[in-house]
Amino acid sequence: MIQLIENAARHLDEIAVKSDSTNYTYAQLLSASEQIALQLLNGRTDLNEARIAFIVDPGFQYVSIQWGIWRAGGIAVPLCIKHPYASIKYVIEDTKAEAVVFSKEYKERIQLLFEEFEMTAIPIESIESKEGNLPDIGLDRRAMILYTSGTTGKPKGVVSTHQNIEAQIKSLVISWEWSKEDHILNILPLHHVHGIINILSCALWSGACCEFLPKFSPKAIFDVFCQKEVNLFMAVPTIYYKLINYWNELPTAEQQAISAALKDFRLMVSGSAALPISTLEKWRDISGHTLLERYGMTEMGMAISNPYRGERKPGYIGQPLAGITIRLVNEKNVTLGEGESGEIQVKGPNVFNEYWEKPEATEETFIDGWFKTGDIAMFENGSYRILGRNSVDIIKSGGYKISALEIEEVLRKHPNIKDCGVVGIPDEEWGEIIGASLILEQGEENVAELKEWLKDKLPNYKMPRKYIVQADLPRNVMGKVTKKAIQKIFIEL
Ligand code: MLC
Ligand code: AMP
């Protein structure tokens, strides 16, 4: 039994989703998702964990398809609407999805899939009304695969069961006191946990309303806030930074109207990357709210959070959420005490079981049942504080996790690039921006042409923003590229 969907029956006439200026009730969501489930089943009794990919704009269609896949017993594979064909193809190939559900906006982008793979194309507009039975779904069934970048080459599929998802939702609903009176604005991409679990699923679990905007725009966000229906907001630090910049440029009367609307909010949360204290303070001046910073990861949902009630400490991520156990360990895996810095390891029902068809990667990421996050932190004065990561090859930009190695692999395929080193450069707005040091085969390389060449190979958020050309990459005595030395060159530019 999927409790998230069972809960909907308690709120049939309430608004579940607001998108494209239309309100959709929980009854409509149940009906639309049932039709999609029956269409996917197409006479079968159960999808038995078949992977179903889907690509539609954030909104009612997205939720109906996600729930439809779950109700038919499938594994939902949400595709990123900003990905070029090459990235979409990778996910389809890796998951061996049996079908893609899509809306007409994305038909052209994915058309080639149906020539390259044996799979079913399901235009969302083609779903017909059907009658039939839906299978019973156990909590241990695999429910979703989200792709995350790691320290080895290509992204890995993180598999979550219904049990994982339920545990992730429940701990947030309890800790942040969600209720059916809540109304949240969701402007985050829907192929990552922040948008899918923390915002969408927590809202629907609670009988609340989740409103969507078609794309990120500070003006559109503030316009929605000023309608005074929304009382909850969650975003990555870059988004708060952009909202602050936009607000600063507005005439005083508009600034005051926005600030007045924000004061009535119940809660505002920041996460997915470190929240600069300057951003927290400026947002407090504008909104009257101290952002609640929390820490999480695709593999486990949220794990550590500042309190909903009680002191929210700037620069700290807070305490373990209900039902989640945390320890810090050193390189020898010895548990550390207060004031010592080490890797965060996590245990709990929220933690995933496996990377999709990557048993070795799965084994490497657990030790004695603890999930190794790769994040370094310290516990002091009753709170955890993030100090960094144990790999320089993981970049966080705009809240997206990006693998330097994945970008290097693409760059090395360019005919004039002999070698390269990709790094994250600290940046107030983006957290980090991506820098690439290039070793050329010959002559010079035109950056505009290189960007054009990269366009169909990498999504926009994985594009290097700064380039340098070097005669050779800096290396240590063992011959290993020293990324810190490359970073230093970019910082000093
Ligand atoms: C885009 N641009 C960047 C950039 N991304 N510049 C530097 N670094 C980046 N990473 C530039 C573009 O080139 C363009 O420039 C301009 O910004 C607008 O580009 P866009 O593609 O239209 O971006 P936009 O829609 O504005 O997106 C910005 C954003 C987005 C902050 C809204 O990055 C975003 O949605 N981030 C959230 C990601 C997220 O949800 N992460 C959660 C992962 S889960 P120009 O010059 O052409 O205008 C997780 C677990 C947890 O982490 O704990 O939550
Ligand atoms: P992802 O793999 O995209 O889910 O990103 C998870 C990573 O985001 C974590 O491993 C952290 O490195 C980072 N992260 C999430 N929340 C925070 C936070 N509040 N402060 C610092 N880093 C964070």
Describe this structure in words.
- The longest helix is centred in the first third of the chain and has 16 residues, at 26-41.
- It is built from 16 helices and 26 strands.
- It is of the alpha/beta class.
- The chain folds into three domains: 3-137, Rossmann fold (3-Layer(aba) Sandwich), CATH 3.40.50; 207-347 and 361-389, Rossmann fold, CATH 3.40.50.12780; 394-492, ANL, C-terminal domain (GMP Synthetase, Chain A, domain 3, 2-Layer Sandwich), CATH 3.30.300.
- Strand 20 and strand 21 form a beta hairpin.
- It is 32% helix and 27% strand.
- The radius of gyration is 23 Å and the shape is globular.
- The strands form six sheets. It has a nine-stranded mixed β-sheet with strand order 2-1-10-9-11-12-13-14-15. Strands 16, 17, 19, 20 and 21 form a five-stranded antiparallel β-sheet that branches.
- Bound molecules: malonyl-coenzyme A and adenosine monophosphate.
- Residues 188-189, 192-195, 216, 236, 238-239, 271-272, 296-298, 397-400, 430, 433, 460-461, 465 line the site of malonyl-coenzyme A.
